[in-house]
Structure formats: structure tokens, C-alpha cells
Request: fold
Amino acid sequence: MKTTRRIVAAMLSVLMLGAAFTGCGNEPAAPTTNDPSSAPVENNPTPDNGGDKETDDGKLKVGFAQIGQESGWRDAETASIQFYAGQNVDTIDFKFADAQAKQENQIKAIKSFIDMDVDVIGLAPVVETGWDAVFTEAKDAGIPIVLVDRMADVPEDLYATFIGSDFIEEGKNAADEMAKLLGNKGKIVQLEGTVGASAANDRKKGFEDQMAAEYPDIEIIASQTGDFTRAKGKEVMESFLKTYGADIKGVYGHNDDMVLGAIEAIKEAGLKPGTDVVTVSCDGVKGIFEAMVAGEANVTVECNPLLGPIFFETCQKLKDGEAVEKWVKSEEGIYRQDTAAEDIKTRVY
Ligand code: GYE
Reply:
């Protein structure tokens, strides 16, 4: 499964040509060569040049500490960032580290970037807490931190900006969609993202608060983490189905991948996903559109992973001493089964 996703991620750089980038500013130009610097770097918990200090060649020096490869969404974000860097090798010196889902690896990567004296450090924090010490080290070294796609729970002076989505809003939208699908009543289950991740914490809060406030006849009978992966989403859904069977009328997943796993479990249990058990999830990856076209998924609340251009533009501004907003918010939509066959034609991730 991962291999398929990696191929998709690698192909994404081709698909991105001429694609619409939601709220992303300048688009990268078409590639003229197959530059290896745009290829995904795998199994690399520490940055790829061994931490050497470099001579000042005037380029924008950026280090990015990625979480890992847990989802199709994550692969699309990595591809977007690496594609942009690959297209701008003349002006950007880019270091990429894949932390393999471990905070300690992300911390190590940040320390290496500080040693390399990069201009800006980008980080998608796997969890929200535990960043104060290493962010303070970066601050003391005069290197701004740009938080990409997930937030960190730190004082405002320890990071320059957050580029990403409003997860509370996504959770609230997901609750409204679930209520519409169920006619405001029924029992549902929730597949949570990685424990401690801002995307999981806030998608849960936004959803549960809206359910409690507006839809008292919808009951969340079970909620458990599926770690943002398809395999765990399936596994958790299997155990929910064993316990609650056909009482489950809906599943809300903090990402599409987990719901794609849940769909397999629902089918194996002899029920019809999209009908017997309706689905709402976040991200908007290709797989969920295919499931909607097949009538097996109902709604996805989009979350934009194509953050490469806005990330590097923001890094450049920081290097140039220009002001940046504290939160650069992504613009996103909601996609439903009835228009999925049309919508899928323009999806690029
Ligand atoms: O929804 C999920 C992932 O942080 C917004 O992380 C991101 C989330 C995304 O792996 O699929």
C-alpha cells in the first residue's frame, strides 16, 4: 500500500503541472529535467548532508523536518515541498529529514539544521507538546521556525508563523455533514488521528463540540485512535464492528486514509459502506474520491497539502526580514458523493 502511495507521490510532481493550487501563491514552473533533488527522501531521520556548515552562496537555506509517510495526504505534502525545492535549486538550498513518525527524530533534525546554520527551519510537528527547549535553541541561534500543517503548543515568540488549516472548523463542518447524512440521529463511531497531534486534537474537539451543541440525538458510541493510517483505521473499525455491529450508522475519521481502511472492514462485515454506514472524513485525497464515485464514501472535508510554494515564499520573506502573518490559513472546500465523479477530474493529490 505504501509503495503504491509513494509511486503516486512521485507522479504527483508531474500531475502538479498546470494544476490549481488553492491559496498557494506562485506555482512552480514546468520541470525541464528529472532533478534528483525533487525525489522523495526515504528512511532518513536526520538531514541529508551530515550536518556540515556551508559557505554563504546567497541561496535561501531551508531545513524541513517532516513527520513521515503515514498517509496519502502526507505524501502529497512532501511531494509539493520537494517539487518546489527541486525546481528552484539555483536559489534554494534544501535539506529534508523524514522523522519516521518520531518526535525525537524531529528534534534531532532541528538540532542538525541549527548546526548547519540554515536561514529557516520548517517543521510539521508530529505532536503538539514538547517543543519548547529545541525551539528556544533555534531562537537563540537566530533561526525562525515555520510550523507547517500542524501546530505546536508553544509561546508565540518561539515560532514565526503557522501555515495550515483550521482543524476546529474542519471538525465542525464534518459534524454538520454527518448530521445531514443521518437526518440528525443515530449512533456513530470516531477514528482519531495520532494521539497528541494538533490535527487530531482539534478535529475531535470541533466535531464533538458541534455534535453536543446542535445534534443531541447523534451519539458517538466509540472513539479510538487509528494513527492516521489506513491499516490501523481498518483494524479499529473491525473491533468497533465486532462490539456494536449494525448499530453503527456512521463513521467519522480524522483523515481519509483511516476511513478507506474502515470501508474495507465494513464490507468484510457484510455491510454497505456509504449506505448502511455513512462516512465523513478530512483531507480530500484521490482514494476517497474514488470511494465516493463507487458509492462507498459520502463526504470529505478538504485539507490542502500543496503547501510547497507558500512555505518557501514565507521562508524567503523571513530571510529578507519582511513581516509575515502569524497564521497563514489554507482555503478549503467540502466535497460530497453526488458531485464526486465530476470533482475527481480536477483533483491533483
Ligand atoms: O490530515 C493526515 C495526516 O497534519 C493535516 O496529517 C495533517 C494530517 C492529515 O497524515 O492525513
Observations:
- Residues 70-71, 73-74, 149-150, 199, 228, 255, 257, 282-283, 303 surround beta-D-fucofuranose (CB under 6 Å).
- Confidence is low (pLDDT under 50) at residues 6-43, 48-54.
